[in-house]
Amino acid sequence: MSRRLLTGNAAAAWAARLARVDYIPAFPITPQTEIIESLANWIDNGEMAGRLVTLESEHSMLTAAGAAAATGVRVYSATSSQGLLYGMEMLYNVAGWRTPFVLTNVSRGLSAPITLEADHNDILAARDSGCLQIHCATCQEVLDSTLMAYRLAEDERVRLPVIVNMDGFYLSFTREPVLIPAASDVDAFLPPFDPENIAFRASAPASQAVAVLGGSPYSYFRYEMHLAAMQALEVYEEIATKFAEKFGRRHDAVEAYHCEDAEIVLVMMGSFATKARAAVDQLRAAGQAVGLLRPRLLRPFPAAHLQRLLAGKQGVVVIDQNLSMGKGGVLHAELASVLYGRKDAPPILTSFIGGLGGRDITAEEFFEMVKVTREAVASGNTPPPRLLYNRDELREVHKLQAIAHVEREELGKGGDKP
Amino acid sequence: MYRIRFHGRGGQGMKTASRILGTAFFLEGFEVQDAPRYGAERRGAPIFAYVRAARQPINERGIIQRPDLVIVADDSLVPVPAAGVLGGLTANTLLLINSHDPAETWTERLRCRSPIIILPITGEVEDRAEMPYIGATCAGAAARLVGVISREALAAAIREELVALGPDIIERNLDKALAAFDTMQAHAGAVSEAAEVLASSYTPPDWINLPFEDARRSAPVIHAGLTSVEVKTGLWRTLRPVIDYERCVHCWWVCSSFCPDGAIAVTDEKLPVIDYDHCKGCMICVAQCPPHAIEAVPEHEAQQQEASDKQGVGK
Amino acid sequence: MTDETTSAFRRMKDLPSTHLLGTGTPMCSGCGGLQALHEIYDILGEKTVFVNAAGCMTLLSVYPFTPFRGSWLYTAMASAPAGAQGVRDALDILLEKKRIPPEDDLDVVVLTGDGSAYGMGLSATSGAMERDLDFLYICYDNEGYGNTGQQYSGATPHAAKTATSKGAHGFAGYKKDLFSIWAAHKPAYVATVIGSEPLDLARKIEKAKSMKGPRMIIALAPCPPGWDYDPKDSVEIGKLAVKSGVWPLKEYVDGEVVHTKLPHPRIPIEEYLQKQGRFAHLFTPRRDEALLAQLQAKVDAYWEGIE
User: Fold this and answer.
1) Closest CA to B272 of B299, B247, B295, B243
2) What integer is the mean pLDDT of A314-327?
3) Which residues of chain C have a CB within 8 Å of the CB of B42?
4) Which end of chain B is more exposed for a tag (fewer CB within 10 A), N or C?
5) What is the pLDDT of residue B75?
6) Would the pTM count as exceeding 0.90?
């Protein structure tokens, strides 16, 4: 065991190395490249067994990943944003094959316009694929979650691919102290992959991923995937307990921070949740009963955890680092759907969109979101969803538009003249 | 509401039949729904198409569970479970079968409560060039059976639906369809509309909570080889290739290699043997046999011959 | 060139008399693609895993039915060669780490139609060849998107009527030269075959089976519904495709392209065309002499210098 400064990318690579993965189909994309470069170097230097093959696209990369897993080896791969979407057809496919492997997604805002910085629309586009999702807030969590993800994916009650998500830049290129566990401890926690009957062998013919005819068999196979994903909640709890016993760190399906006595609870995913945690500390210091919930699992959705942890709260602040055009924040909708109709559900659920394309969320903004929510609790009126966006930001965009020769007269209208 | 189901084989124009009948209803002022339904199988395999027609807007959708009229373009499909010809038949359902055999034979054969009418087969069923016209014939007969479609509306529907095929083909279809329409004169209006399912008295669905089954079982994986032999694609056949072993010169490699389905096996004595459970009746072997030792026999004749041979053996 | 003296298949008599591919598939009656596949499978044998792309043959394996004695994996339309990469690499890893015995190894075979091979799957095929993947690729080429009702594809020949080229002159484009595109990658082997020439096919598959690296096969697949002819004519049309020079039987090895069966004497292309409904507009209501001459000239130009 050693404690080192590692980027999120390096932590992911270390996890794949410690998991003794057999096969890494790869394709480079910013900000994921450091992961596959690290693995390629270790394999070249003989520090790691395993085979890395660069495919010609993420679509092919995910096909090769699923096909290798379907042949019975332990597979790892990594991608980001546009790459995840380019491979989207295969994400749905390989999940349907019921082949276990782990994919790191380094979250990055989607095109267009193209950007390199983080938000969660890429990973949320994979929400309904059948791949399970673990969302990380620290580099340590990236390493730990990847190891846990292999046990989750390979469990006979689950057998679905798992995506471990980290935010681009804020984790991928950010170094933090990370405990790298001893290989022997990891071996004890994560035994070699036993593919059972997932295999192509001359002695045991198998036809995998075959077509079905008609809605009844299709419904069966799809709903069994859903039931397996639901089983994964319980399996995850077991794995979290085993992991805590072995390594002393517990990663619950939902991280709850100062929630027990909280009146107002912030809910958000990913690395910016640590900023929310700092804000909770400040608010607590100011005498406010505020807490934070951070779902680590998005699929399966930890509905029961959230229902229990939010029961009886006065107000909930949902901060979505994503945007479903024409609807709003995805996490807000997900949360509302599991709280609706419950007697003890918080009466106020406010929605904020922030951090799109890596846009910062400041401490003051956290404080203000809590204040707005408190006012809503007092008045009983839920305010409309709000994008976290300042007057100065719009002014700067307008300057860019002037240079871009956007019609100036149009710009002159409205109240935001510089 | 009229609920009508056409059963035929891929290539026999069942989609066209449903569209002709749908348009004919439409021209008579009905609200209409028509649609074909395909499985994975192709030309020669069982398919069906359906038509709904009502004086009121139609909210029902999808498969017709309880038909008022079932039209079978190809009588060899009746006993094929995958074709689902007999699905949902009630005493109210009229069954129209395109067949050489009389209605009594079918009633007996099927032990069927549904009234049966025969559309006599004219022309050579083995002539595959005739296949596309079967649809129009069936549509013509169906139009008369429902009793609310005029000869003119039927003709107009055929002209409208087949406009892309040119005047010659339209004329041939018209001839076939109108002849069938006339043939059914005695049964005009024989189809009656079934009662609707009532919310006040219905059989509740037998829902279950789908049990969780782990992936060893619930992954879409076949853990064996060669299971396709369970599928009797021989039922697609309308013509049967029959080898005359007197004339066969034992060049087994020709018919056996060319058979796309691998349905011609070679015995130790180097004799080709056709697997009729799986021969789809493409007739490539007939066309390619160097000494012309394979004959094409209409399937219904071959089956009759088989049945009488069996009886002969029994005696 | 395919060696008639060393091949186990010297005469038609030497062709396999037992057939390995199972009956009961949902392929159309008279399918030229299935014909080629069953002939190929007889030679390849059951120690194979087929990696399939979306196309007619996706439906070879519909739960719970499969005609294969060996294994099968359906991927997607664009990426069957990448699936083959994953399976091959995984088998190699398992063999290397001695997690499976050598006798459990399999030959990896990609199976796609022309829609995938000539179009959507070309990037993945190029990648697999560039990585020198040890696999066999079979394209059944029925010259259109057959599974969806024969719309034109990159493999459709000039002037053919398809569901998306119903105009007076048929398809305006020209069939892509996939053989040359593949050969430009310098893979181990490229060959054209057709089910109606089973001896030539058997020799080529026998040869491909004996080699390592990317081995690429295009089988012209006469298609009764797509080309509009009676199923019984599949073999005759296939033979006419070869005799007229429309479908040259050839192979590429070590930088050389060799024709394995010279159509001699070459019959006029119209004998091939007039058998098929998709070319009927060239003959009725009147002969389209200009277009027929153009099609003939194209074939003549191909064979100039070869014959």
Assistant:
1) B243
2) 98
3) 26-29, 31, 225
4) C
5) 86
6) yes
- The rounded distance, in Å, linking the Cα atoms of A322 and C297 is 60
Residue B2 contacts residue B146 (beta carbons within 8 Å):
yes
Contact criterion met (CB below 8 Å) for C241 and C220: yes
The neighbouring-strand residues paired with A103 are A77, A163
A224, B210: Cβ pair inside 8 Å?
A: yes
- Over 60: is that where the pLDDT of C1 sits? no
User: What subunits make at least 3 CB pairs under 8 angstroms with A?
Assistant: B, C
Q: What percent of chain C has pLDDT over 90?
A: 96
Which residue in A92, A94, A197, A234 has the most chain B C-beta atoms within 10 A of its own C-beta, making it the best mutation to test that interface? A197
Of C118, C123, C126, residue with least CA distance to C152: C118
**Dihedral pair phi/psi, residue B184, rounded to 5°:** -90, 10
The torsion angles phi and psi of C280, rounded to 5 degrees, stand at -60, -30
**DSSP code at position A271:** T
Q: How confident is the model at residue A251 (pLDDT cuts 50, 70, 90)?
A: very high
Tell me: cis bond preceding B167? Omega within 30 of 0 counts.
no
Alpha helix (H) ranges present in chain C?
A: 32-44, 80-96, 114-115, 122-130, 178-183, 198-210, 224-227, 234-243, 269-273, 289-303
Could you tell me the sign of the dihedral formed by the alpha carbons of B162, B166, B171, B173, in that order? negative
User: Taking CA atoms, what residue in C is nearest to B287?
Assistant: C232
What confidence score (pLDDT) does residue A409 get?
A: 56
Three-class SS state of C139 = strand
Say what the pLDDT of residue B315 is: 46
On the CB side of C259, how many CA atoms lie within 13 Å of its CA? 15
A274 CB burial (10 A radius; 0-12, 13-18, 19+):
middle
Given this model, what pLDDT does residue A418 score?
44
Do residues B204 and A214 lie in contact, with contact meaning Cβ atoms separated by under 8 Å? no
> What is the per-residue pLDDT across C38-70, written as a single tens digit (0 to 9) for each?
999 999 999 999 999 999 999 999 999 999 999
Of residues A390 and A411, more confidently modeled? A390
B256 has pLDDT over 60? yes
Dist. CA A418–CA A400, nearest whole Å: 13
Cα dist. C139→A287, C7, C215 in Å?
Answer: 72, 23, 11
The Cα–Cα gap between A64 and A53 comes to 9
Cα-flanking dihedrals φ and ψ of residue A239, to 5°? -65, -40
- Over 70: is that where the pLDDT of B187 sits? yes
Q: What is the mean pLDDT of chain A?
A: 96
Q: Which of A81, A78, A77 is nearest to A67 (CA)?
A: A77
In whole angstroms, give the CA distance from residue A366 to residue C219. 65
Calculate Rg over the CA atoms of chain B. Answer: 22
C267 to chain A, closest Cα gap in Å = 43
CB contact under 8 A, B220 and A196: no
Question: CA of A195: which chain B residue's CA is closest?
Answer: B216
Look-up of token digits 């509740």: B204
Does B210 sit within 8 Å of A223, measured CB to CB?
yes
